[in-house]
Amino acid sequence: MNMAVVDDNPEERAFLCRLLSEAAGKLCIPAVLSEYDSAEAFLDAFEPELFDLCFMDIYLKDVNGMEAARRIRSLDDDCFVVFLTNSPDYVYEGYEVTAFRYLLKPAKADMLELILKACAARTDRKRLAVSINKKNMEVPYGKILYVISAGKSIELHLDQEILTLSARHTFSQTVAPLLEDARFLTCGRGVVVNLRHVKKLLKDAFLMKNGDHVPVSRRLYANVSNVYMDYQFDHL
Prior knowledge:
Radius of gyration: 20 Å
Number of helices: 6
Strand content: 25-35%
CATH architecture of the largest domain: 3-Layer(aba) Sandwich
């Protein structure tokens, strides 16, 4: 579980990180903790599907925790946000950003264990395990715009980056886990697209939100069109 702690008080931040590490160890939950001393620093590092859980102090300087949570929610519907506060003043605003919990400072170990256990049971973050330049890495599904077989290579197209997979990957093996997710659709031979990143369906291609054109097979067009329309309807 990837967790972020955003708090401009270094002592309180260190205290919470220590408790979280102990709670994760006790529950046998693999955890990676990242610390940020401001909302701006956290938002600069934030990417959709990168963090499973964020502990956010509400009373931050400049950009406060509530505003940061609104920005998080505009990019990622599923990141759990736990507000850290000395006061329940913002509790009603928390409904706007679907806050998972409010945690009064100082945090208690037993409450953190309950939060981690609940989040671990509910999180469904998916990451694609790949090998690039002989290095193993995991790519969040949400960052993948489309996957395409290009000659003897397989390319993962992200928003502003193309990852070329090591030769030991086959296209079918690479996309098999993606195709179990409703976001991904085969739209041609050696082409799988993430419908979440599609701007519109053209006569022979998907226009992606980043401006790329992803070809759609004439043979598959009718089915692709139906699936895309159903996806749009389900995500209105």
